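New to this. Look over this protein:
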Amino acid sequence: MTTVDETVHKERSFAGRVVDKLGSGVLQFVLILVGALWLVPTVGLLLSSLRSPEDMAASGWWKVFSKPSQLTFDSYSSLLENADVTKSLVNTALITVPATLLVIVIGSLAGYAFAWMEFPGRDWWFLIVVGLLVVPVQLALVPIAKLFGDIGIFGSLFGVILFHVGFGLPFAVFLLRNFFAEIPRELLEAARLDGAGELRLFVRVVMPLGGPAIASLGIFQFLWVWNDMLVALIFTDTDSQPITVALQTQVRQFGNNVDVLGPGAFISMIIPLAVFFAFQRQFVSGVMAGAVK
């Protein structure tokens, strides 16, 4: 004879299985719907960049589905013929790549030192680094601009790179120090017993193990620098401005230069998206690294 508790347990188990099946299907549908909605602006920008200014003024980008003949690469030809925009794309790469690599290299070295090396005042120095995380960028714009002007690097690519590196390092050191501290001590001691010095230990053992965290840091830093406009607007001049500032300057007095802004905005957006999707596996691994012991 079955008890009431057993009957309720069986009913709940059956109901739970039904809910799980329905929940799985509903969840997948919701995720697909959210992904599709997230892609709508990107698709709209792409299709808009492939239409003529006249077609964009006359109707919305969705009209290309009924009139595919509207699609043309003339706007991209205009973009490549615009020296200011093409130069700004090169400037953006010249700013973003060094700023990202320097933050990764310096942040990795500092993170390893704070995690596994003994030196006077290590904990206090790390607290200072953590404290720098709360310093807003806006607070430092005026004094750093004055400092860069005094030393002669204001308006140059080097000045913008230096600013991004300085403000990217506190987060990099904090993130990588916490990640490197989770490496088993026995593994490092075994490498030292084999005769590995600190530099060799860092390059051969720590850096490969820290790949997911380093990839996550690289994605964050790349996206922040590539999409930055505030710092670039203040610290660059006509010769060193990146794509974000160049597109802003393309706005005319009585309207938008849509034949350049459309493809320029799409290229400016698609490159960081490509970087993110190229390293998304490492990014997820880095984000989830501390979630599971």
Q: What stands out?
A: The longest helix spans residues 4-49. Residues 7-11 have pLDDT under 50 and may be disordered. The chain has 14 helices and no strands. The radius of gyration is 26 Å.
